[in-house]
Design brief:
The protein folds into 2 domains: 270 residues, no CATH class; 73 residues, no CATH class. 39% of the residues lie in helices and 12% in strands. The chain contains 12 helices and 10 strands. The strands form 2 sheets. It has an 8-stranded mixed sheet. Strands 2-8 form a two-stranded antiparallel ribbon. Helix 1 packs across helix 6, helix 3 runs parallel beside helix 9 and helix 11 packs antiparallel against helix 12. The protein starts with 12 loop residues before the first helix and ends in a 6-residue tail after the last helix.
């Protein structure tokens, strides 16, 4: 009998149907994708074939789920507390929070995107919120901040087996990407990746990396994780993981922003790692002096918000970093009257998300 702690989860009919739909569409698109891939490989200065690249993705790619551990769920718990108590990672349809858009409800934007992406599998009668996919990214080059730091300062790195029940798209699902696939039919996603990185390498945290360098880096991959941050905010290979994400069974490592050292969230995450037997790792983090917050990247509302957050929540000598932004985000939820001069709570929370984006884009590694 399979060990329930290591055996892959049984997929529900809706989850299995979603995987089948994406795979079917990818098989339809594979011939065109191969025709797109061929000239990129030929011009890359390498002798790699498409099947070698796809095999390297299967061997070395890891799914990561980025999250902010100190954000509050609608039941009042922090994300870290919920992970600790529940032992599973939940989707926005269950938690009611997101570091993207808040549209995970029947008839909402995310519901409509999923209907298109997965052939209506999750809109069938009787499908429960817990059945919905969990969103992360494919971390091709082991960037230390995960595949999608836009969505959180920390991340769960999943075991390679999770790739077998993931669907993958080049670009975030809110853009309704046309290039999608599965691990065994990855060519449409690879074609989109090579098209996007050809010549410039501006996507996926690959600035300055041309197609040849990307391929050589991927295929000469070592088991040692990179210490380099990818800083991927707007371009990434999104992963939709179908079936339960169980910490004990599915997580290979927990990677945490250093600003959470010595905090309640950091202690809870450490306890999770110890209890489930996977390593707790720290990436280099992102921090900025309060007067170093860019006014152009996410708009002019962000620097004055950073100054206010720093004045009200920072400790002496503390820069702007992930945990500081989290203190403010918790205050907005718990003490909305304190922020009423800024307008609706939703606007302030959105601006705090954008402050985090500025940190990812421009922040320096944490001192010390």
């Amino acid at each position: 009998m399979p060990d329930p702690l290591t055996a892959p989860p049984a997929l529900t009919p809706a989850q299995a149907a979603a995987l089948r739909h994406v795979r079917h569409m990818a098989l339809r698109d594979r011939p065109v994708a191969l025709a797109t891939i061929a000239p990129h490989l030929a011009g890359s200065g390498t002798a790699y074939q498409a099947e070698q690249v796809v095999a390297a993705v299967a061997a070395y790619g890891r799914l990561t789920l980025n999250f902010h551990p100190d954000r509050l769920l609608r039941d009042g718990r922090t994300v870290a507390e919920a992970l600790d108590q529940d032992g599973v990672y939940r989707s926005q349809f269950e938690t009611g929070i997101s570091n993207g858009g808040l549209t995970a409800f029947p008839g909402g934007d995310r519901d409509r995107w999923e209907a298109t992406m997965f052939g209506g599998a999750y809109q069938r009668p009787g499908v429960l919120p817990a059945e919905r996919p969990k969103y992360g990214g494919l971390n091709l080059l082991d960037h230390a901040d995960g595949a999608c730091p836009r969505f959180g300062s920390c991340h769960l790195r999943l075991r390679p087996e999770a790739l077998g029940r993931a669907t993958l798209s080049f670009g975030d699902s809110h853009t309704q990407p046309k290039d999608a696939g599965t691990l065994d039919v990855f060519e449409p996603v690879l074609a989109a990746l090579l098209e996007a990185t050809a010549g410039t390498g501006v996507s996926l945290g690959l600035a300055g990396m041309d197609t040849g360098t990307l391929l050589r880096t991927l295929l000469r991959h070592s088991e040692r994780e990179s210490t380099v941050a990818g800083r991927a905010l707007d371009d990434y290979i999104e992963a939709q993981i179908h079936g339960e994400v169980n910490l004990a069974r599915d997580v290979e490592a927990l990677v945490v922003d250093p600003s959470f050292r010595g905090t309640d969230a950091g202690r809870i995450l450490g306890g999770i790692a110890r209890r489930h037997g996977f390593p707790l790792r720290w990436h280099a983090g992102f921090e900025l002096p309060v007067n170093g917050v860019d006014a152009e990247f996410r708009g002019p509302d962000i620097p004055p918000l950073a100054a206010r957050v720093h004045a009200q929540f920072a400790r002496p000598g503390e820069p702007v970093h992930a945990a500081l932004v989290g203190r403010a985000a918790a205050s907005v939820v718990r003490e909305p009257g304190r922020w009423v001069d800024r307008g609706p709570v939703e606007v302030t929370l959105q601006h705090l998300k954008q402050l985090w984006h500025v940190l990812v884009r421009f922040g320096a590694p944490a001192s010390g």
